[in-house]
Amino acid sequence: MVDYDPLEYPYGSRRMVMYARNGMVATSQPLAAGAGLEVLRRGGNAIDAAVAAAACLTVVEPTSNGIGSDAFALVWTGGRLYGLNSSGPAPQGISIETLRAAGHDEMPRYGLAPVNVPGAPGAWVALSERFGRVKLSDALEPAAEYAEKGYPLSPVLATAWSQAFQYYRTVLKGDEFEGWFYTFAPGGNPPQVGELWRSPGHARTLRLIGETNGAAFYQGELADRIDAFSRKHGGYIRKADLEAYRPDWVEPISVNYRGYDVWEIPPNGQGLVALIALNILKGFEFTAKEALDTYHKQIEALKLAFADGKKYITDPRHMSVAVADLLSEDYAAKRRLLIGERALEPEPGTPPRGGTVYLATADGEGNMVSFIQSNYMGFGSGIVIPETGISLQNRGHNFSLDPEHDNRLEPGKRTYHTIIPGFLTRGERAIGPFGVMGGFMQPQGHVQVIMNTVDFGLNPQAALDAPRWLWDQGKTVSLEHSLPPHIAQGLARRGHNIQWALDSGGFGRGQIIWRQENGVLAGGTEPRTDGAIAAW
């Protein structure tokens, strides 16, 4: 087991590590954690609980995800780790040429153009069918009840909702966005803290998905509605794109970091960035977390990893380099030599050729799930299919319109994806799921959480509580306000362009569940949001 002191709280957390034996669900919303626990107590396993919590999060945290999201999962069951890539491809009717003809020089952020095929409902179905114990309709019912009967908004959720509304009403212009305002700003204003919000169409959609095992969404009534709306408003997604979609079971990728195997989903996800960085960092020795050299080397390694990731990561069928080459020891050693005393401008190397929700679940039988689901940039594309509650992601925004770029837009292609679940093992034993949501913060959060755990012996809660940094671009690094000032001053002396963040909203939101050697589950939840752990 990870060697940590369960009673040490160096960052003054308001939360304590949670312990349980029979089951645990860690999410960014208490109601979603409760939904997962409800399914566990009714005889479901950790996989059922993950599906229940994920579906519930589309209702109780729509500022980050929806039924039209994408999803990824790492599942430990039967002594083995499985990977699920449920991100959707670009529609067959879109291309660089069609967008340029429509007057776009880069991928739009909002509207129907950046909408790829949604993968989240497919993930729920795939997980339930392969590993679940209860019917999908039963797993989705707690979410449907919250959508139908309503729930009161929690504080961080209400703040994010209000901020999104203020922004969207200035940028979402056109009839295609009416559904968003009707659904998420009923009466012309967003719901406030403690105010009830309902979405009856959302409830009906969830029940249709559950009753038909996803067929209504990909082949039936809901697919017809998405197709009709897209045609009416000049979009590209069609029913045929939905009918052709299948999630992919994939082999997770890993690096060994100081005796622990850190696992991620392979590209098109950006988990590879975290692994490249850890592969570089394991060649250094770190004596203390709150040391200038620790922060400097972490930042430099992430910069190098991101330079490679942004150049090479895309749909694996279109990558110009192999994952194994990017994770080779020789390449890590070569990149490590670039890290000196001064901040560098990151450039991609040439390897030798050869607005997200995260949740973690575990049960008393040994099953564990690391699951992440997201629209993008908060509410996503700003498109809500009328009377369905389906808010669509805008993942296509990450495509490049440069025909020479690995991640160039092509019909039927998956784009570079920011959402990544993580998992930690040691030898043949599962330690557990972890994740930090938040756009391009995610691999940076993964590296910081793993080092907090493995290098510095922090317990799950303290590993999440610790101050974070975020590399933005070039030599610019944002620091959380709780980070020691002397570290900021030292980084500035080394050439980093330091910016203090006004709040902690951009530093990600994580969850961790570790299984101890005695079988007891130890969980930590994010202090930067309305996080909660439900356990028994």
Automatic annotation (TrEMBL):
GO terms for MF: transferase activity
Keywords for the protein's UniProt record, in alphabetical order: Transferase
Pfam families for the chain: G_glu_transpept
Name used for this protein in its record: Gamma-glutamyltransferase 2. Threonine peptidase. MEROPS family T03
